[in-house]
Design brief:
CATH class of the largest domain: Alpha Beta
Radius of gyration: 19 Å
CATH topology of the largest domain: Rossmann fold
Largest sheet: 6 strands, parallel
Order of helices and strands: EHEHEHEHHHEHEHEEEEHEH
CATH superfamily of the largest domain: NAD(P)-binding Rossmann-like Domain
Length: 284
Amino acid sequence: MSEIIDGKKISAQIKDEVKEKVAAYAKEGIEITLAVVLVGNDPASAVYVNNKKKACEYTGIKSLSYELPEETTEEELLELIEKLNADDKVNGILVQLPLPKAIDEQKILDAISPLKDVDGFHPQNVGALSIGKKGYVSCTPFGIIELLKRSGVEITGKNAVIIGRSNIVGKPMAMLMLRENATVTVTHSKTVDLKNVTNKADILIVAIGKPKMITAEYVKDGAVVIDVGIHRMDNGKLCGDVDYEAVAPKCSLITPVPGGVGPMTIAMLMQNCVNSVEIIKAAK
């Protein structure tokens, strides 16, 4: 039977470490501030933003909240980002996605200063990751690396298969696993004979966006399985992209949904806010 990777426990450890670093910076007279921008009234986004505010409060990071109406224009949002970019008291800027349809998401993400892009979505930070330079790393993949390392998983030399090629998870995950010396295969909706590819994975990272798609026949005995997906079923319960009950008996380690990858995303956002101090200082 597999061992469960407890994302709640590991994320709590990271937030405690961040809290200590924030307190140490405060003694030097350095305050860390995160600006969070929410446009519109998407209920899920409001929950995520609230969780980020709570994490800031816990770690001692100051949070500035900008809650804008649904009818906010792209120009108005760009003006706010420009103002936050220029504000030396702001270390990080986070614009909660998705944005209303009238606003070009990529244009907004590109407008955030790469030095304050604590979500790790700016092309400059993505490029830095791809060539091994310092910068912000997208929070979910960053969190998965921490989950693996803190669970005692040896990454070097392992076959890592990633299902999904999104800019937010799949692609940065592949680059991070390469950086950790894994042999990496990225699969997606056009992959031929997916089961044959995933059955070679020592570490299987699933971010495909389809509930319970990955069943036992996709998984090698003893593999480590990381489930990035989260879906609400008709009965109100949450599930991931992996059929947990079917897959868990084959794994050595597996993340549950909820309580696996999810808590790590916010913990690594807090870590990126702390990292901003050195990133901004190095650029001056």
